[in-house]
Design goal:
Layout (H helix, E strand, L loop, with lengths): L2 H25 L4 H10 L2 H27 L6 E7 L2 E6 H12 L5 E10 L4 E9 L5 H20 L3 E11 L9
Parallel strand pairs: 4-5
Antiparallel strand pairs: 1-2, 3-4
Helix pairs in contact: 1-3, 4-5
Length: 179
């Protein structure tokens, strides 16, 4: 979720908590909020302010519904090509499988967890790696960056803008490699 959406979600959550708390207090028989609300609403200017704030909260709620209905983009598909016969897309799991296959070219990598970020010009690949303790980290990270970029561009036909690498752990366990 983008920072702006997170901020608006937080504001909306706080306003919802306040409203729910007031309604709960009224439902439990606490009359002070009701008396205060009646005294505030008896002044014409206050009614306008409350009306404007309520309208903004409604707009914020509608915006949050639209953002939520768009989804997170985790299961998005990426268009490979658009021909006269139709459009060709590739799914995120398929791209992740291709990334894992490309990373097998580098022996010192024990485990890889790819994360894809979509940009308008292509895709940014973020790799979370678990590497062998004997690995030369600068060398293998450069190798995996080049292997993943070249493999995705060659096999999937998508433009790879960046391949970012995070070495998440150094594993002392050996895993069986399938070659």
């Amino acid at each position: 979720m983008q920072p702006g959406h997170r901020f608006l979600s937080s504001i909306f959550a706080i306003l919802t908590i306040i409203f729910a708390g007031i309604v709960l207090a009224l439902a439990l028989g606490w009359v002070i909020p009701q008396e205060y609300l009646q005294s505030v609403l008896s002044i014409s200017d206050n009614r306008w302010i409350i009306g404007v704030v309520s309208g903004l909260v409604i707009l914020l709620a509608l915006y949050m519904i639209v953002v939520a209905s768009r989804g997170t983009g985790q299961h998005r598909e990426l268009m490979i090509q658009d021909t006269s016969l139709g459009r060709v897309d590739i799914s995120v799991p398929a791209l992740e499988d291709l990334i894992r296959r490309a990373s097998r070219q580098v022996r010192e990598i024990r485990e890889i967890r790819p994360v894809l970020q979509y940009e308008k010009d292509g895709v940014v690949v973020v790799l979370h790696l678990n590497v062998s303790p004997d690995a030369n980290i600068p060398v293998i990270t450069q190798e995996v960056q080049e292997a993943v970029k070249n493999y995705l561009e060659e096999k999937a036909g998508i433009r790879v803008l960046q391949v970012q690498v995070l070495v998440a752990s150094v594993s002392f366990e050996s895993r069986a490699r399938v070659e």
